[in-house]
Amino acid sequence: MSTSQNTIKRALCSFLPRDAVLSSKEELHPYECDGLSAYRRLPLLVVLPETIEQVQRILTTCHEMKVPVVARGAGTGLSGGALPVEDGILLSLAKFNQILDVDTDSCTATVQPGVRNLAISEAVKKHGLYYAPDPSSQIACSIGGNVAENAGGVHCLKYGLTVHNILKLKVITIDGELLTIGSDALDAPGYDLLALMTGSEGMLGVIVEITVKLLPLPERAQVILAAFDNVEKAGDAVGTIIANGIIPAGLEMMDNPAIRAAESFAHAGYPTDAEAILLCEIDGTNEEVSEQIMQVRQLLKNAGATEVRTAKDEKERQLFWKGRKSAFPAVGRISPDYYCMDGTIPRRKLAHVLKRISELSQEYGLSVANVFHAGDGNLHPLILYDANIPGELEKTEELGGKILELCVEVGGTITGEHGVGVEKINQMCVQFQTDELRQFHLVKECFDPLGLLNPGKAVPTLHRCAEFGAMHVHKGELAFPELERF
Amino acid sequence: MSVGDSRQIIREQVLAAFDRKMKLHITGGGSKQFYGRASYGEPLDMRNHSGIVTYDPKELVLTVRSGTTLKEIESTLASEGQLLPFEPPHFGEHATIGGAIATGLSGPRRPYSMSARDCMLGCQLLNGKGEYLHFGGQVMKNVAGYDVSRLVTGSMGTLGVLLQFSLKVLPAPGSMITLVQEHSVEQALNTMHRIKGSPLPVDATCYHEGRLYIRLSGSAGAVESAKSQMGGQVVDDGDRFWQQLREHELDFFKTEKPLWRLSVKPSTPALELEGEQLIDWGGAQRWLISELPEQEIRTATADAGGHAILFRGGDRTGNVFHPLPSSLMTIHERLKNTFDPGAIFNPGAMYASL
After folding, report:
1. A214 CB-near residues (< 8 Å, 6+ apart)
2. Tell me, what CATH number does A348's domain have?
3. What is the CATH architecture of B3-171+333-339?
4. A156, A191, A353: which to substitute to probe chain B, counting the most B Cβ within 10 Å?
């Protein structure tokens, strides 16, 4: 045990129970990575507090000793946001796992950050309510992590992201101050710090309590599966549905490699010869669903669908979704490793982007399967690779970076719902200019002037961008020309 | 540069103000001058920075310069069967989208759909150093960088000159009718809560003087079915009622006394405060006309989990917005200082020190 580890451990153990501080290598190992397992690092220590007061004292101690702190929920994040730093502690919120209050009149629930996303919906189902954002990992991911990443899911087009579905946070700043941000009402006085905190990737404070909005369970939900012999037609069909005044609860698209992988895994009855399928879910009142299902069926046929199938019962509806929701593990079965990207694009650019991805895929000699939250333009290309082949991970990351840069080029973004973390930090230099990045750093300093919370994540330093820019000269223009080079 | 793009001129004014340590008072259509704390400074007129930049109904995204009038935006959207989901109050014929976003005000649909900040996808602004900054984007899902676009929504123009926004728009409902039911205030609040927790196609509720107004909206079949399920009289000109509520043109709002907006936890029972009240937003927004001392109103609202705004009238040099705890105020002051280090923009419009 190194001296610094010892000193910090002693300071923390003066007020934390023995079993709340982990320090041996064996104990630290489970925390070495999050869902982005290509990056691994051991922290100095892991702490597992149980009370708000303990979190306050941990942060005050780390602040005084200038020790970095990385907060972690369930560790399911896909961008390395909870990757430990070697000279810092990892603060696990796993013991904050209680649902504190459900108010059925206001339709809200107050929960601790370690509560699983799905557990909220399960707990309030008896009141005919649910929590809308549903990331695919909802069975395991924690609500605190969802807020930190502004998590999405398949129902975002109609019901919004995490930022649209929370009302109030209790947050502890690095100097140990407990802040209440937002309110029990629908808005709060002052600047919208609730929005600023949501998706801030643990850079501004540690979330210790969350009040979420609950929605009434829809009376009925129905899903249609449509097959297309051409990806472009499927993309156009999405725009047509929306232009006709219909906002589906979910609108998902998969390309042929993803369809085949999902079908052989889940046996959902997907047509494996289709170039693309769309899954369109309509929810609402009985009458609304009946009317819109008929309308959507017709629109899909007019858009050139080769097959349009409505799930005949709830069992088949679940099966259609099972195929989509298991697309990631399904791809995992046909390839030793896969790398999941998360760009968002204006939908009208879909055909162009998929064509470019397919060209890049050939150029790099790596297969790509595409799963797409088509309604809101959020694209998840899955790059198939084998980490045991030397150099293949690096090649994959490079291809992934190219795909994200393509998303920015067509007017989109490098991350729709997974966050920047460590994974996309270089692409932040492509999406934002110097002045914008500088403004981000200034915002960070308002909360954490010493830069102790989750250092090295989410917002790149200007030097890093200068180095990255030097390697990526775009259309003959050097990025960040005003900065000195090394 | 296309017609209506006045960024350059605006930037020069900002740079000049920064150099000369002057203050700027940002104005649009002047419709919301009554709102917020009294501010001062050289007028910075945004009306010439106007026009719809891009609008593709299929993308559900509108990109627009801040000086564009709400009227122009709403008629453009209506021609494609779409609308601004937050139903912004205009408070005057020349109201601009810049003013709607800077004040962050939302209309009757807000608790059942989206607020101004919910619709915000991305913005372009000029900070106090005259730097053009873009945050967010033109897509629904975007988690790259801190959410500055939503941070500046409702910031009363104190963080920067808002130049351009990308906003989420939605299809207008196919059918809308308004029902009215006679209720006591307790019954009305109970009904509002029951509605919020059930999958009924309701997108506005308001209670005043024994009458609960409910707006049903959605597909024709859904509205018809909900109508027979819920009961009550159909209001002949329902649209007019909601418009008058949104624009504060109902008789209730015609007063010289101070008008307070109390934003509370929706399940809050009827607030026992001396004065006239109107309940909106399914119980979450209570309008109060009262000459009670400020502190009494603020305490009652804070006890109800919310905050009070002196919306119209009264002393505009005091606390118009709810005072913040000192820890939060410190963060506000730091944020203000990073965006506007010369303290140029709308001094004191939100809080005296911002």
Report:
1. A102, A107, A108, A109, A120, A124, A127, A129, A130, A131
2. 3.30.70.60
3. 2-Layer Sandwich (3.30)
4. A191
